[in-house]
Amino acid sequence: MQPRSWLFVPADSEKKVAKALDSDADAIIFDLEDSVAAAMKPVARDLLRNLLKRSGGPQWWIRVNPLASPFIKDDLELIGIGDIHGIVLPKAESGSDVTELAHRTGSIPVHAIVTETAASLFGMLSYRDPRSPLTAMSWGAEDLSAALGASSKYDASGELGFTYRLARSLCLAGAVAAGVQPVDGVFADFKNEKGLRAEAEAARRDGFTGKLAIHPAQVPVINDAFTPSAEEVKHAGEIVAAFEAHPEAGVLTVGGKMVDRPHLVQARRVLERARQEA
Ligand code: COA
Ligand code: MG
Q: What is the pLDDT of residues 64-73, one digit of tens each?
């Protein structure tokens, strides 16, 4: 199952970790990187070591520190001792970073954050590698804007600036090209539910199938936005049924509108997603 909601939790906070485990997130990302100060990283690793085992519930992922950092060696020692589903790799610049990680971690799934440095924007097609353990790609604007020396991610009208929208689209196309899950980035304004809903719905329309979260209150909004509505499922069912009734047809009319192969592909995807959530 591809997680809809991926909830970040700073791994040095016992209270937040307990809260994250209690949430309805499809995946929890225990963070050892940006949300944990250097001095607290050993504390965070200890907390995770003692967490271990559980049954059912959300997938457990660990966001390790970047490959070039002095922390990653200790971070990777956590892999294999707990019930860790996968590793989130920040500051990834190309598929060879995933390969390098995999040399140390084997076949454990990897979710790479692929737009956090200037160079990363030029590496998007390099993730396409059938031998790679990569299963998801997401994008981030915060580190990219810091890397670029930008004073703001937003343009004068308050929308994400062109560079960040470009990064988002590159991530989407790169993930689809690589055959992995495209995951939309965080919405930092966690008290603004309406804004989150609009952004998550836009992401789903564009092709993303999940979104990063930074606060438990964001989880139900994201889960909802990435779950097909009853109306969408019904419409998708009509399209599939129409093509099954006319297997020789290339183009048909459903609900008064033209539908052809791309609509059928999309309709099957909606039904598959609905089946997963059932
Ligand atoms: N996971 C689990 N629990 C969380 C949480 C998270 N990501 N964010 C907040 N909570 C908890 C809080 O501890 C608080 O618990 P309490 O009611 O027992 O006190 C409750 O949810 C409500 O939190 P709230 O007061 O609204 O927010 P806050 O000021 O405590 O925290 C942030 C705000 C942004 C610091 C916090 O949401 C956070 O740490 N987010 C994750 C940051 C992160 O991982 N960043 C890296 C990826 S970009
Ligand atoms: Mg970061």
A: 999 999 999 9
